[in-house]
Amino acid sequence: xxxxxAWRFSEIxxxxxxxxxxxxxxxxxxxxxxxxxxxxxxxxxxxGQFFSSGGCALLGFWVVWPFENLxxxxxxxxEGSVMxxxxxxxxxxxYRGIVP
Length: 100
Fold this sequence. Notes:
Number of strands: 0
């Protein structure tokens, strides 16, 4: 393949559980926060909609970033369970890569 690694059908869904653990809460948080912005009048104008939507997405992603990080590690094929990798990196290690 392109990456020089062998491809196996059984590895297609590696990290899929963590993807669901990331996406579900992120989208729920995003829609709840954006609904609150709409109800409080912050999203009444196109500019308000832009900043409200962007801010809600930013907060949602910051909350679920550890799941994204663990999913990437699982897809990379790192050894150990999710909990072992989380313990090894510590809480702040789960936020590695969130800022440039």
